Amino acid sequence: MICDNAPRLRLAWMMQAVAGLLLVSCTGRPPDWLGTIRLEGSGSEQPAKVIEIPFAQVAGYLDEETDFRIVEPESGQEVPYQLEYRGQEEPVNLLVQVDLPAARAVKLHVLEGRAEPVASRTFARYVPERMDDFAWENDKIAFRIYGKALEGTPGDAHGVDVWVKRTKDLVIDRWYESGDYHRDHGEGLDYYSVGMTLGAGDIVPYINDSLWFPKHYREYEILDNGPLRTTFRLDYEEWNAGGIPLRVSKLISLDAGSQLNRVEVRFDSPDPVSFPAAIGIVQRSDPGTHLMDREAGVMAYWEPPHGQDGTTGIGVIVEAPVEDIRLAQGHLLAVVELSTGEPLVYYAGAAWDKAGEFTGAAAWFDYLLNKSRQ
């Protein structure tokens, strides 16, 4: 299964003492050295991996007021980093983005001094000018979820939408401003059809073999917004799901360089209750290709081509035991057993063949299976 701290982290931190010159002459460390981070791989190569280091491990030597740089010592290149707050007043994690080899450790030096600005690679925002959409993206892919203003309109839709792109640039603001994002002008487009479905990996109660949809989200909070990770929460009002009064809250994170969102979902009810739920991928009328690996907790759908627009792949990885993966209700569904008050973590995302990285089902399925083992 995927773990947030998949690489083993070994931090060797030393205070820069009065004998700093002696330290440099004996060890070769630069005079502005604060500490060393050593990252060891998990057995598979992970390019552009965002790794989180608990800030408590470095708080004795760094704080949010400290100017510091992180450098790869062999190349001398700065490594992008982010202080992650998760909505708190103090940093919770130090995030770094590196190419992590399968077997060789990566050593990073933390040095005093102001870091070079990092162009944001993730972004999210509330979009009131487009019927209360909430949209988010990274340098690979973009998504949106629909808001209250869309309810009951002819264009109403429910699940997770996908915007495919072939540029590392952030496009949400520009595409919304133009209003012309259903045609490909060279960067990508929105051709993914959601309707009243789960779209690309949404989750709802699955009681008596029926999908019980809530209304659209009512409140949002952006906890972090780049440059390497964006995290936000969406809250939904109570609804009746097969006789059970439920509320749901979704905590969604997207890292730079990843095709997948991390989704932490929690259902609550006035009284504790357990119930089945389903994570779903909407199906098309023409045949596509499926991956249904219940033991690994992985399901995926390589859609049929959408004319000249290309082909989208959707994937889900579930950390909890999966009871069944089935084709039902117009979806590919991963069925899990949930209890109110207990969060479920899963990963859901998408890829586009015209972006060039995943040009067929085999490459997309391999990516998901490898992620499930990291």
Q: Your description of this structure?
A:
The structure is a single chain. With 374 residues, the protein is mainly β. The chain has 2 domains: 8-112, Immunoglobulin-like (Sandwich), CATH 2.60.40; 122-373, Beta-galactosidase, Chain A, domain 5 (Distorted Sandwich), CATH 2.70.98. It is built from 3 helices and 27 strands. It has helices at 20-27, 172-178, 361-373; strands at 8-13, 33-40, 46-54, 68-72, 77-78, 81-84, 93-100, 106-112, 122-127, 133-138, 141-145, 161-165, 188-189, 200-207, 210-211, 219-225, 229-235, 239-241, 244-255, 260-268, 274-282, 289-293, 298-302, 312-318, 324-328, 331-339, 344-352. The strands form 5 sheets. Strands 16, 17, 18, 19, 20, 22, 23, 24 and 27 form a 9-stranded antiparallel β-sheet that branches. It has a 5-stranded antiparallel β-sheet with strand order 1-2-8-4-5, with no helix packed on it. The protein is globular and about 65 Å long. The chain starts with 7 loop residues before the first strand and ends with a helix. Mean pLDDT is 91; it is low at 1-26.
Q: Nutshell version of this structure?
A:
The chain is 7% helix and 45% strand. The chain has 374 residues and is mainly beta. It has 2 domains: 8-112, Immunoglobulin-like; 122-373, Distorted Sandwich (Beta-galactosidase, Chain A, domain 5), CATH 2.70.98.
List the keywords.
Immunoglobulin-like; Beta-galactosidase, Chain A, domain 5; 2 domains; nine-stranded antiparallel beta sheet; about 375 residues; mainly beta; five-stranded antiparallel beta sheet
Distance between the termini: 6 Å
Report the major sheet: 9 strands, antiparallel
Give the overall silhouette.
Answer: globular
DSSP helical segment count: 3
Count of strand segments: 27
Helix content: under 10%
Alpha-beta content class: mainly beta
Number of domains: 2
**The CATH architecture of the largest domain:** Distorted Sandwich
According to CATH, what is the class of the largest domain? Mainly Beta
Outline the low-pLDDT stretches. Answer: 1-26
Mean pLDDT: 91
Strand content: over 45%
Cα-atom Rg, whole angstroms?
22 Å
How are helices and strands ordered from N to C?
EHEEEEEEEEEEEHEEEEEEEEEEEEEEEH
